[in-house]
Amino acid sequence: MTNGEHNEIGSQDAEMNDQKRSDLSVTDDFTGKIRSFLQKTLADRKLRKVLRIVIVSLGTLMSVFLIFLFLFYLVPVIQEIPSGAGAKMTINSSLQEDQKYKKQVSLLQKDVQRLSRKFSSYTSGLSYIVINTTDNRFFLYRNKKLIREGFCSSGSYTMLKTEGEQKWIFKTPKGKYRIQGKITSPVWRRPDWAFVEEGLPIPSANHPSRWEYGVLGDYALSIGDGYLIHGTLYKRFLGMPVTHGCVRLNDEDLEAIYHTLSVGSKVYIF
Amino acid sequence: MENEVKKADSGRRTTLMVVISIIIAFLVYYAVMSMMGPAKTMAGLKSRYGVQPAEENPVDEGVFNDSIYVSTMKQKAFLQARIAMAETDSVSLSLNLSDSTAILEINGVMVHTAKIREIQMSRILRSGDVNLITSMLATPGHIVRDFATIKKEPLMIKMAPKDTSEFKPDIIPDTSDYEPVGYILEMERGLRIFVYQAEQDTAPDRRQLRMFDLKDRMRNTWSSMKKVTVFKVPEYRPYIKLRLPRADAKIIYRAIPRKGQVAVYI
Fold it and tell me: Which residue in B251, B230, B224, B241 sits closest to B35, CA to CA?
């Protein structure tokens, strides 16, 4: 190593030492400032009071938070801590060779088979339709297989109120229904609410203004209580809850359903 | 003067210590009483659903730990419950936690099936007395109360126009799906079923569901507190927490009636 190299290393060390010294002095300055601030604060009675209030308030808030955390979250977790050995499932070969056990299991398995058969019998091999009123979709089944699905429109969940005490709720009923009648070229007999809804006076029961042609499509299937599965002029609303309780379908789906379902076929609405 | 201040300070400190000690003692007492809850619930279930061995034909207790026997017994119980629900015409819910499916049924016909993405359940249901739990689940549970972030029937009120000049034809309804879905079904035998949407992509959704959960915790803690203050063990209700796709969770909640029935296969 030459003298020049020695000098260069020496100057680098000196620079590093200077840097360290300046860093230390900055830290000293900072702690000094904090110390002096604390001394001033503690010396000043008003500031001391404020500081105490802040600390006590923060402490109280923290304690309340911890109490709530304990009550709402920790106690339910503690309740779930296992208290002892739980039941362990085993395959006991000596037990499985026992005649009594075999008999018992075979009886149970027979029960399961019988109950499975009974449960399966609830699903008809005949045609039926399922209507989902939340998603406004229908599913048509035949021989327990899905043969067609698509969009429909169901009840709008609107309550129509008059200034008097009259009110109507437009919703599609849920549950199991049956097709009670099949109609071609149905004519709509407008009920009272259809007039009330448009601000028209309610006409007499057989007034000509009650009959409206061509608005229900080519077919209609009645499910009882005045509810129908029918066509619509408002095809852009299919897939939305817009009806007064009936189920609307597009022309192709309606035709397929009309020809697939017969009087007595089941309709499941959920 | 200085002595008086010192006395007042020490008096305040003593009061504070007493208050803190009382609070801590109450919290410990509450925790201990709450820990006794599951055992009390289990005892209640035992007296209600426990099997009394027949004197003439005693059952080997070992069968209740045998996996083949237990799984067959569970299948039977689940089928029994579903058949009982099928006897009615209304919509019912079958939860098959073994294959992670939630099934809506009407009169025994499966009308909608949803995949459960996540399942959590109480220790009692997970590793309690299998025979007891199976007996309890052999009949469908009836919903007695529910809490939800969404409405069961989103009813809109519309005032009828006085005459034709006030009539406005219907505009396209707002069907945008913005509410996060979470609900709790409380069954008459104490079981609680929590259903939350699996999707938690947005912060408002997460916040709303967390608030919903917090409200439920507050309700439970309040009712437990009331019991504990009269020296009674608070009620412990076993739970099943499920996460389903949002659309399915909503369909299920809207479909089942307020006092609907639920069958569970664990």
Answer: B224
